[in-house]
Amino acid sequence: MPGGGIQPEIALDNQGVVHLIYFKGDPAAGDLYYCRSRDGNTFSAPIRVNSVSGTAIAIGNIRGGRIATGKNGRVYVTWNGSQTAAKGNGGRAPMLYTRLNDTGTAFEPERNLIHSAYGVDGGGAAAADSSGRVYVFWHAPIPGSEGEAARRVWVARSEDGGKNFEPEQIAWNKPTGACACCSLDAAADASGRIYVLFRSARESVHRDMYLLESRDHGRTFVGSDIGRWNVGYCVMSAESFARGTAGMFAAWESEKQVYFGRINRSADGVLTARPVSDATGQKYPALAESKSGFVLVSWTEGMGWNRGGSLHWKVFDPSGEQTGTTGAVGGVPPWSLVAGYPKQDGTFAVLY
Fold first, then answer.
1. Across-strand partners of 241?
2. Long-range CB contact pairs, 258-264, < 8 A, 24+
3. Phi, psi of 76, rounded to the nearest 5 degrees
4. What CA–CA distance (Å, rounded) separates 280 from 182?
5. I want to staple 117 with a disulfide (CB 3.0 to 4.6 A). Which of 25, 154, 192, 348 is the partner?
6. Where are the alpha helices (DSSP H) in the chain?
7. Strand ranges for 151-256 from DSSP E
8. Range 2-266 classified under CATH 2.40.128.20
């Protein structure tokens, strides 16, 4: 990682440029940095994402920055505001958002996208399509309610390239709840469909993984339960998407394993998924897809609260079968994640 940073998050634009954000500083009140690579080997000098120092958070691994690229390669970043940010917002933790300026030299001052749906805990997500629409997601209780059962996935939409956002709306108003300290993830496919992965918290113990899909640019969503997990505690889980020539792939955690599969666009987001290995203690999956349709699945093992672990990876062919390319290495720092990306020569790189 550049400069000793942690929590890498990566997005590729349509030109294959690698856009990277990462965290540095006090895990409770640090900063996000951005750099990019055109060749997959060298990165530009970093610039700070947040204009107010100390407004980002790394504690819990899943509350940090999320990045997306959209029309003309514009970069968008969102993150859970730290207690430093909350103090400047009447004590309420904000969902902060910014975008790279027109010249690509600095980020606009961050702003809070929450109008009424306060109560962010687990991390949010950003997605953008090629037409200039931008989406920011988070989960929080219905205003006036409390508890995991009252939590819903919220979406703030922009129709003008992330310049202005509509007030947030509930994406899918089903009584599933949401696992309070779990993250969610979102992505747009080549046709503009929007996908969201989040963990439920129905009756406190049904912490299933749900896949949401929108075919009308985030106005409405349909949802399906794609991974059951009955456990009576918050699992602090993460998810990942990858979009490429072979389609849209997704990965998530269930039963302490990472599951991986391809989204079936002809069957309303149905996923045929399987564990990436028989090991347990797997967390924080990350996906990357090459131009030839091969998919890198990377994840961590042995991670815990303020405890580091090891990086593991496997490569799958365009049909979803394992290629035999697999490996592991130690050294993932506490509070960190892993992130992979395809290189121009068809190989992959992983940051940790």
1. 250
2. 258/282, 258/283, 258/285, 258/297, 258/299, 259/209, 259/227, 260/285, 260/287, 260/295, 260/297, 260/316, 261/320, 262/320, 263/195, 263/211
3. -125, 140
4. 18
5. 154
6. 83-87
7. 151-158, 169-170, 185-188, 194-199, 209-214, 222-227, 239-244, 247-254
8. no
CA–CA separation, 93 vs 114, rounded Å? 9
Residue type, 281: G
The alpha carbon of 134 is separated from its chain's Cα centroid by a whole number of angstroms, namely 14
Q: What does the block give as tokens for 68? A: 């997306």
Q: Which of 138, 202, 123 is nearest to 170 (CA)?
A: 138
For the entire predicted model, the pTM comes to: 0.96
Six-digit token string for 223:
């949802």
CA pair distance 248, 234, nearest whole angstrom: 28
Pairing of strands 134-141, 151-158: antiparallel
DSSP 126-151: EEE-TTS-EEEEEEEEPTT--SGGGE
Residue type, 135: Y
Enter the tokens of residue 26: 């006090």
Chain centroid to Cα 130, Å, comes to 19
- Rounded CA-CA distance 125/128 in Å is 11
Q: List the one residue out of 316, 217, 185 whose CA is nearest residue 262.
A: 316
Q: Per-residue pLDDT tens for 103-136? A: 999 999 999 999 999 999 999 999 999 999 999 9
Domain ranges in the chain?
A: 2-266, 267-352
